[in-house]
Design a protein that fits this description.
This protein has no helices and 10 strands. The protein is mainly β and 154 residues long. The strands form 2 sheets. Strands 1, 2, 3, 5, 6, 8 and 9 form a 7-stranded antiparallel β-sheet that branches. A 3-stranded antiparallel β-sheet has the order 7-4-10, with no helix packed on it. The protein starts with a strand and ends with a strand.
């Protein structure tokens, strides 16, 4: 048997974990599996952070060289997606993601997800994402984005 994984999102003050989420939609509330039309982001404001992790199960020796990036989907005027990987959970908020950098738009040359390796079933560190807009961002929907997660398994 080999490793399998699902995406999980953490939300709330006391960290409620939802495994097997169906989307990573950004919005104006702290909740998994959002419908963006119900939680719109006002131009010039930020979405709530998304605190996602990959949960591995199955039989494997190690998972390493984990990489995460935005592989498809053009930005619209004034839009950016910030990214940071951290070991600890913090309640999602609309404040600018502290220490966040623009998410890579092509495969990184080296691992950008920690821990560097996983040797037993469990979670990666938190991948924190946030959509940020400016006053120049037009009203309406943004373009759909695709995120890619790649890893080595032994």
């Amino acid at each position: 048997m080999s490793a399998t994984h699902v995406w999980s999102e953490s939300n709330g003050t006391g960290e409620v974990v939802t495994d097997s989420i169906t989307n990573i939609n950004f919005g104006s509330t702290d909740a998994p599996n959002l419908v963006p039309a119900n939680f719109t982001i006002v131009a010039g404001e930020n979405s709530f952070h998304k605190c996602i992790r990959c949960k591995f199960s199955g039989t494997f020796t190690s998972i390493s060289n984990m990489k995460f990036w935005k592989s498809l989907g053009a930005y619209i005027t004034g839009e950016a997606i910030k990214f940071i990987c951290e070991a600890s959970y913090s309640q999602p908020a609309e404040t600018s993601l502290s220490g966040g950098a623009d998410i890579p738009v092509s495969e990184p040359g080296s691992a950008n997800i920690t821990p560097v390796s996983i040797v037993a079933p469990g979670y990666t560190d938190y991948i924190k994402l946030q959509e940020q807009t400016t006053g120049s961002t037009p009203a309406g929907n943004v373009n759909t984005k695709t995120f890619t997660f790649k890893y080595d398994e032994t």
